[in-house]
Specification:
By secondary structure, this protein is of the alpha+beta class. It has 12 helices and 8 strands. The longest helix has about 40 residues, at about 1-40.
């Protein structure tokens, strides 16, 4: 009797081991095909799927082997059913987690290629994760034989109470959806709000939007603040920005020579766009104590335009002094204004 039991245990262990080896070989074949496809098409979803399956697939192989072992073991019917339900539940939850991770990465990669703000924003990750996990939960409940009708009824009643208690949070959530659909801003845009906050949009989340300021700090702003106030987007419709450098000349200054110097200095400064070329404008022109002009030019983006404006002004002042361009006395100007 003992020998028969021992033989039975060895047979069961052998079958479980074969199931483990077979599942590992299948895993290796699938990952190999995905790897080759990812090499042939670097921007395909195959690479993302392979990254998502690499570690969880090992646990799936162990789960298959364990399920075979439980089915062949001489356990009670109730214990076998509980064990099988536990294994299948684990597989459903793990598949759901992998599907969520792969979906988020695939959507983000596609959004980066297609320049889709919704796909690369944090809100898209939240919505994708919620949708995938909801589907996985419904599948799990269906497998366990649990009716979802009472659950939906309870969620409907509880959802009303939650909506009343979380009005501010829901307002920010739908404001985030509004931002991603209407696209007044996108990740990477440089913006300024009516409350004087300004910076580069780093992420649009389900409740807040994060700005990276010029001081390398993160400002967290509720989404409804962005949709309910005035917003200046320096990146739309074109990231190029117009910059002005005010210039004051003496009443007897050679305006044509000053104009030539100002335009040449602007064009010689790194970061200034050559087309359209800089222009020399009267702003407003003749004053009782001086002549007031400005040189206008474009830079590739607003961020960093202050440094370019400073560099242009330094070059112009240096050339004005070298060419003896008359400039007004500051004290005289202030005396006339007072």
């Amino acid at each position: 009797m003992i020998d028969a039991q021992l033989v039975r245990k060895v047979e069961v262990a052998g079958v479980a081991a074969l199931a483990l080896v077979g599942s590992l070989l299948l895993r290796r074949w699938i990952l190999g095909r995905l790897a080759r496809h990812a090499v042939e098409q670097p921007h395909s979803v195959a690479g993302v799927v392979r990254e998502g399956l690499a570690t969880p697939s090992l646990l799936w192989c162990l789960a298959v082997s364990l399920d075979v072992l439980l089915n062949l073991s001489e356990l009670g019917e109730r214990a076998t059913k509980i064990a099988n339900n536990a294994v299948v539940s684990f597989l459903i939850l793990s598949f759901t987690m992998v599907a969520s991770s792969v979906s988020i990465r695939a959507i983000q990669r596609y959004g980066e290629r297609q320049n889709m703000p919704f796909a690369v924003a944090g809100l898209s990750r939240t919505l994708t994760r919620t949708l995938v996990f909801s589907i996985g939960l419904l599948i799990l409940l269906r497998f366990l034989g649990i009716s979802i009708t009472p659950l939906i009824t309870a969620l409907g009643v509880g959802g009303l109470a939650v909506a009343l208690a979380l009005q501010d949070t829901l307002a920010n959530f739908f404001a985030g959806v509004h931002i991603l659909i209407e696209r007044p801003i996108a990740v990477g845009d440089y913006i300024r709000l009516s409350a004087e906050e300004e910076g580069t949009v780093r992420d649009i989340g389900w409740r807040t939007t994060r700005l990276l300021t010029s001081a390398n700090n993160i400002v967290v702003i509720p989404n409804k603040t962005i949709t309910s106030g005035n917003l200046l987007n320096y990146t739309m419709p074109d990231p190029a920005a117009a910059v002005f450098v005010p210039l004051m000349l003496g009443l007897e200054a050679d305006v044509e020579k000053a104009e030539k110097i100002a335009i040449e200095c602007a064009l010689a400064t790194e970061g200034v766009v050559a087309v359209p070329p800089p222009v020399f404008l009267a702003d407003p022109g003749m004053q009782p104590t001086h002549l007031q002009y400005r040189v206008a030019f474009q830079v590739h983006q607003f961020l960093g335009s202050g440094l370019i404006r400073t560099a242009v002004l330094k070059k112009i002042l240096a050339q004005f002094r070298a060419e003896k361009i008359e400039m007004p006395e500051t004290g005289l100007i202030m005396q006339k204004r007072s």
